Amino acid sequence: QVQLAESGGGLVQAGGSLRLSCAASGRTASRYAMGWFRQAPGKERAFVAAIGMSGGLTYYADSVKGRFSISRDNAKNTVWLQMNSLKPEDTAVYYCSATVRPANLLVLTPPEYWGQGTQVTVSS
Fold first, then answer.
1. Which has the minimum average pLDDT: 17-31, 40-54, 73-87, 108-122?
2. Residue 34 and residue 50: Cα distance in Å, rounded?
3. Contact status, residue 82 vs residue 21, Cβ threshold 8 Å
4. Residue 111 half-sphere exposure toward CB, CA atoms < 13 A
5. Residue 94 and residue 6 in contact, taking contact as beta carbons nearer than 8 Å
6. Rounded distance, CA 122 to CA 106, Å?
7. pLDDT above 90: residue 109
8. 3-state SS of the chain?
9. In contact, 51 and 57? CB cutoff 8 Å
10. Res. 69 pLDDT band, cuts 50 70 90
11. Who contacts 67 (Cβ-Cβ below 8 Å, separation ≥6)?
C-alpha cells in the first residue's frame, strides 16, 4: 500500500501554468505506476496523465496532450504534473493515484490508491 498527498493547486489565469506535486510514502514508489485524474462538480472523474513505474512511459488524455507533462523521481517518492496553457475547462479537483498494474491501464481503469485531491481553478 502507498499513501499519497497532493499539493500545488490554486487559482490561475487562463493561459497560465501550475505545477502539482504528489508525495508518496515509503521507498518503494517504483512498484507503482502513477497517474493524475481530475473531477469537476457534476462530472465523472476523468483520466489526465499516467507514468510507468520507472518513468520511461507516459500517457495523456487528448484534452491535455501537448499542454501537461507528468514526471517522477522515485528516489524522492514524488510525482509532478506540470500544467501549461491552462484553460477554464481544466478547472477541477486533481487527484494523484497509484496502481500496481501497467500505467496504460489508467487510461480507462481506476487505480487502487488515491490522494485527497487538490483544487485547481482557472479563470477566464
1. 17-31
2. 6
3. no
4. 30
5. yes
6. 25
7. no
8. CCCEEEECCEEEECCCCEEEEEEECCCCHHHCEEEEEEECCCCCCEEEEEECCCCCCEEECCCCCCCEEEEEECCCCEEEEEECCCCHHHCEEEEEEEECCCHHHHHCCCCCEECCCEEEEEEC
9. yes
10. very high
11. 83, 84, 85, 86
CB contact at 8 A, 3 and 114: no
Span 39-68, mean pLDDT?
95
Average pLDDT, the chain: 94
Count CB neighbours of 79 within 10 A: 30
Closest CA to 114 of 21, 11, 22: 22
